[in-house]
């Protein structure tokens, strides 16, 4: 076990905190040398469970970690392609959206290119405690699973939201339930020659991808797609609507009244949720069409049904599905449940624990993503990717990575300058 003092500790080496690390290296090298990113996995990745061979990103490559802040940066996606000898191939493909595998490789490459900001892999955060002196918050003490303690003045949480698990499935054998975040790792552990009955829950992009992928990953399986909606829909992709994903819209959204924000989010729901990319939709429909044409009847879809109960029965799970048109209940027996249900809208458990520890009843952040505290403080905590309600629907996506990193860094620099005397004091003494 060992202790370590840093000025900035960023939890999670995903796109959000890597964008911040890049901003630190380019704009505040002195502070970068006192900064650390910790990642619980042994390697830096992104959407590890859904790195399917043909899955495309839904966001332009220009919305990478840095380009919208600094188009000349050596950390850009284009420079990654150039450095790895793949720029001509990507240009020739003629697409603004890279494959998901490419973006994951770009993130790994970026982490390796960092020279000043430390990146510690295999470091899982298990607890975060506020450091108080005479009632003033002066820092944070983060404990990791290997017994280390990392003390920091600034904490940046970018670990993502918690997976959404439908309540009826919380009480069944979890070895037969796989959320999309764990799909590839866990599906690889299963035998390929068994005729699994597979149920996919959801009506969005991840559910569509799971339904398609499992047909090849488990060649003998018979998948059923279950959804509450009347059918599958494509994302709303109007270029006019997409302007609401511009970084400049964050200011406009943040300044709106709370009821107006809620109304905007409701109207933008189908730009990011409960929909499929047009290419995925077309491919999926062709699969169903050919299945019907062949007479095999391997693929099945159940629409307009709620999952109302679930139980274990021997080696299978019995799902209770209620038709919300008639109230009729049917049972669906299955060997494996795949969840394309996305992420819980509530603040992640890690954020709620931090808030509880400092006595914050309701989590709120400033325009610059700083957690609002109800006590004097010379330290601060920043939240990335969980502020949709106050910063707009793009907050959980790649669209605002670079500008948001700039906002957070500028706020940290301003905050440090305002507390210069305290900043110079040894953190360990706080």
TrEMBL record:
It comes from the Bacteria. This is L-lysine N6-monooxygenase MbtG. Pathway: Siderophore biosynthesis. Belongs to the lysine N(6)-hydroxylase/L-ornithine N(5)-oxygenase family. Keywords: FAD, Flavoprotein, Monooxygenase, NADP, Oxidoreductase. It catalyses: L-lysine + NADPH + O2 = N(6)-hydroxy-L-lysine + NADP(+) + H2O. Its EC number is 1.14.13.59. Its cofactor is FAD.
